[in-house]
Every structure is written in structure tokens, then in C-alpha cells.
Amino acid sequence: MSAIRPVLLFVIVEILFQGCAFNRGTLGEDLKPEAIEAIKKGTTTRSEVLALLGAPDRMLQLNGRDVFQYYRYDGKAGSLLLIIVNFSRVSIKSDDVFVVLNREGVVEDVISSRRTEGMEFRFWPFGD
Amino acid sequence: MRSGIRSALSGALLLALTVLPACNVVRITLNKPLSPEHVSFIVPGQTTFSEVVASLGAPDALTESASGFVATYRFLDLKYSRVNFGWLLRPWSPVDPDLVISRTGLGTEALQVVYNADGIVTQHGFLRHLSGPRFNPYPF
Predict the structure, then answer these.
(1) Which residues of chain A have a CB within 8 Å of the CB of B58?
(2) Per-residue pLDDT tens for A73-88?
(3) Which of A73, B50, B91, B95 is 20 to 30 A (C-alpha) from B70?
(4) Which pTM does this prediction carry?
């Protein structure tokens, strides 16, 4: 009987825990921290920003100043596929960089955040 | 002995198939959902743009306004649950019958922070105040 118990447990686990899945999707290129750090307020020019980060994903005007916006999205999906119940959790976060240029075409401000850092695959859909 | 275990296993499986219907629970989040507690540090007339960015990160969008600019933080919390009661008939049916009820709750929100030309917060607020969606497959 003692030899049968582990086999029985294995069979039950196999029946209940059918499988799991990991999926990942990204939009845009990774915004390299060293490229962002190389942009200095008051000295870096528009053309240098373009050389460092490439053409912006979006360009907007803010109180007469040009703003370059760069973004990247990262999505991670984890699924726990059981026979009687499936749990899935999809987490999507974005990295954003805004480069504010003054009228002379020199960087006035750089605003960036990396929300995707430390984002993990999760299965459990409840809670935070 | 073996037949006893086989019977127990078959019974457990049948019980699982009949008593517990097939369920799906899915959640999709875009960025970290913000609550009023997360933005309680913002004091109109005092808090600066850099202080908000330091706490909440870069916004998703910046737009010009007549008196300055507006920073928008978007986030989404989608909850989907589904139950297939067709599973109840599977042990006895030659086909896979489906009797599905499901419900999706989409909680879209945005936080808008309005700044003056000097980058000081003049007002802020959530675009919509939805009570967060719940996992509830009952659609009626």
C-alpha cells in the first residue's frame, strides 16, 4: 500500500495539473538606460537625441517646446491549465521617455520611467 | 486491492467532472492600477511635475492645455470568468456539450494631472470612478 500511495498521488497530480503556458509580447525597441543617461539637460541637442534614441514614437508641442516621446510595451502572460479550472494572468507595462527640447533645440528636461523592470510571469489572477 | 484503488480513482475523476465544472479565470492588467491613496501626496498649488514623476513615473501622455499642460496616466484592469456547465454531461454524452456563462469586467481608468506653465499641479483627478470589476461569471 505504501508503494501505491506515491503512484496514486502522481496520477492525481497529473490529472489535476494538466499544464502551464508562458507567453510574452513586446512592442517597440528596448529603451537603453545608457542612451537615456547620455542625454544631458542644457547641452544635448536635438540631433544628438535622434542619434541616441532614434526617431521618436510620438512628437508633440508643449508650451512652444518640442517633446519627443519614446515608448515600449512589454506583456507577460502566465497560464495554469488544470482540467477543471484554468487560471491566467496577463501583465502589460510600458517604459516611457519624454525629451523636452527648448526653442533652440537643446534638451531642457528628460522624464523617463521603466515600469517593465522586475515584471514577472504570474498565474494567480486574484489580489494585486 | 487494485480494483479498489481503480474504483476510488474513477470515482474521484467522475466526481471532479460532474461536481466541478470547467472554469476559466483570467485577469489582464495594463500598468499598475492607481487608487486615490497612491495620489494622496499631490497637493494642488504645491506639488511639482518632477515630484509626481518621481512617485508615479513618466506619464503615458502629455498634452498642452491653455494654462500649462496635462499629464495622463492610463491603466486597465480586466477580469474575466467563465463556467461551462456542459461538463456535467460529459461522462454520459457522446459529444462535448457546452452551456457556458461568462462575464467580463473592464475597469479602465486614467489619472489626469493638470499643471500650470511652471510645472506646478493645479488640479488632478481620475477620469472615471469605476468600482473595480469582480470575478463573477453570472451574466444576468
Answers:
(1) 96-98, 111-113
(2) 999 999 888 777 889 9
(3) A73
(4) 0.75
